[in-house]
Design brief:
Elements: H1 3-35, E1 37-41, E2 45-48, E3 57-61, E4 66-73, E5 76-82, E6 88-94, E7 98-100, H2 106-122, H3 130-144, H4 151-171, H5 190-198, H6 203-211, H7 226-241, H8 248-268, H9 272-292, H10 297-310
Length: 321
C-alpha cells in the first residue's frame, strides 16, 4: 500500500478544507458587517437591562452617541453603545431616541439637533457640554448619511468644533508664547484632513485647509521679522491655492496685516528698504481685500488698515490689529 501517497493526499485535502473555512469566515464576516444597523442617539436616553422602563438602568446615553442596533422589539431597540469613551454597554432604549441610517430625513433631523446644540453652546447660560454634543451629532450625520447634501458641512462643523476646543487648550499653555510653532503643542489635524480627503474641491475642504494654518503660526514674535514674514507668505500661498475659499478675504487681510507689522519691525532692524517694500506690499493687499470684498467685515477692516498704512500709523503692537 502507498502510505506516503495517501498522507500527501490527506494533507492536500486538509489544506483545501482550511482554505475553504478561512474564505467562508471572511465572507460571513463581511455579510455580518454589511447587515449591521448603526444609529445615533438624538437626545439623552436611558439604557435599560430589558425592554421595560421599570427594569434596571445601565446608564444614560448623551446626544450623538453611536449605537449598534442588535434587534428591535415593538417600541424598543436592543443596542450596543458607548455610555462614555471608555465604557460600552448592551441594553435597551426606546426607539424614538435613535436615528438610524434608515430613518426618513434622518440626516436633517441629526443636523438640526446639532445646530440647536451648537446654539446652546454659544449662550452664556447654555446647556453644559452642548459643544461636545454638537460635535458628535454633526459627525454622526456625516457618518450615517455619507451621500446626504449635508454630509460635507456636517463633517466640517464636527471637525471645526473639535479644532476650537483643542486650540483653546493648546493656546492656554505657557508654551503657546514660544516664538517657534514647533515648541508648543499641536492641534490634532486628523479630522480636518479627513474633510479635505472626503470632500475635495468643496468650500468645506477649503475651510479645513485654512484651519491647518494655526499649527504653522508663531507664538510671540519678539519684535523680530522672521515670524511675520513667514506667516504673511503662508497666508498669501493659501489665497493663491484656494481662490474660491470662503476664507479668502480673511487670508488676504491676515497677510496684509503682517506686512503692515513688518514696516516698523524692519525699521527697528535697520532695514529701510525692506520696510518700504513691506509698506507697498501691505497697501497692495489691503487695497485688494477691500476692493474684492467691499461688503464684508474683512473688506472694512482692510480699508481701515489701508488708512493707517497711508498715514504712517504703526500697526504692530497696537489696537489697530
Amino acid at each position: 500500500m502507498n502510505f506516503a501517497g495517501n498522507r500527501w493526499r490527506s494533507k492536500i485535502m486538509l489544506m483545501k478544507l482550511r482554505g475553504i473555512c478561512v474564505l467562508s469566515f471572511f465572507l460571513l464576516t463581511a455579510i455580518c458587517l454589511a447587515d449591521v444597523l448603526r444609529g445615533a442617539v438624538l437626545q439623552p436616553a436611558i439604557i435599560y437591562v430589558s425592554p421595560d422602563a421599570s427594569s434596571a438602568r445601565l446608564g444614560e446615553l448623551s446626544r450623538g452617541r453611536e449605537v449598534i442596533v442588535l434587534e428591535t422589539s415593538r417600541d424598543w431597540m436592543h443596542v450596543e453603545a458607548n455610555v462614555t469613551e471608555e465604557r460600552t454597554v448592551t441594553g435597551w432604549v426606546i426607539d424614538h431616541y435613535v436615528i438610524s441610517a434608515n430613518t426618513p430625513n434622518g440626516d436633517h433631523v441629526l443636523f438640526g439637533e446639532a445646530v440647536d446644540s451648537e446654539d446652546q453652546a454659544s449662550q452664556r447660560n447654555g446647556r453644559r457640554d452642548a459643544a461636545q454634543d454638537a460635535m458628535r451629532l454633526y459627525a454622526e450625520a456625516a457618518e450615517l448619511f455619507p451621500t446626504s447634501p449635508l454630509a460635507g458641512e456636517a463633517m466640517y462643523r464636527a471637525a471645526d468644533i473639535r479644532w476650537q476646543i483643542e486650540k483653546a487648550d493648546v493656546m492656554s499653555r505657557p508654551s503657546a508664547k514660544e516664538r517657534e510653532a514647533y515648541l508648543r503643542g499641536e492641534i490634532n489635524e486628523e479630522w480636518m484632513k479627513k474633510v479635505m480627503k472626503k470632500f475635495p474641491g468643496t468650500k468645506w475642504a477649503d475651510l479645513a485647509a485654512f484651519h491647518l494654518i494655526d499649527n504653522k503660526l508663531c507664538g510671540e514674535w519678539q519684535a523680530q521679522s522672521k515670524c511675520p514674514a513667514k506667516e504673511a507668505e503662508i497666508y498669501e500661498n493659501y489665497a493663491k491655492d484656494h481662490p474660491q475659499s470662503p476664507a479668502l478675504a480673511e487670508a488676504l487681510y491676515d497677510a496684509a496685516w503682517r506686512w503692515s507689522a513688518l514696516i516698523e519691525i524692519y525699521k527697528s532692524e535697520d532695514q529701510q528698504k525692506k520696510s518700504d517694500a513691506a509698506k507697498a506690499k501691505a497697501a497692495d493687499l489691503a487695497q485688494k481685500t477691500a476692493g474684492q470684498f467691499p461688503q464684508s467685515d474683512w473688506g472694512a477692516r482692510a480699508q481701515r488698515l489701508l488708512f493707517f498704512i497711508q498715514r504712517g500709523v504703526p500697526t504692530y503692537g497696537n489696537v489697530q490689529q
